[in-house]
# Entry
Amino acid sequence: MYIVYWTEFQEEKRIPLKKEFELSEIADALKYMEVLRKDKREGAPIGYITYVSENPDNVTKMGVDVVGPDYEWKKRRI
# Structure
């Protein structure tokens, strides 16, 4: 599933909005975001346009669940 999020600005308020798309509708989600961005460029009071995805058929846990005794995590900076 994909969810497109954006914020609408009304006077002093920020109103969070969203629209949901099925996994097979990625092209539609991206087109919808482009319409929102076009509206923003033309002066519509919106911003923070983004999207997230989640696979509902995922059968694994996200991230590291079990590590061995030789596992040592280090944050590397370049």
In short: The longest strand covers residues 2-10. The radius of gyration is 19 Å.
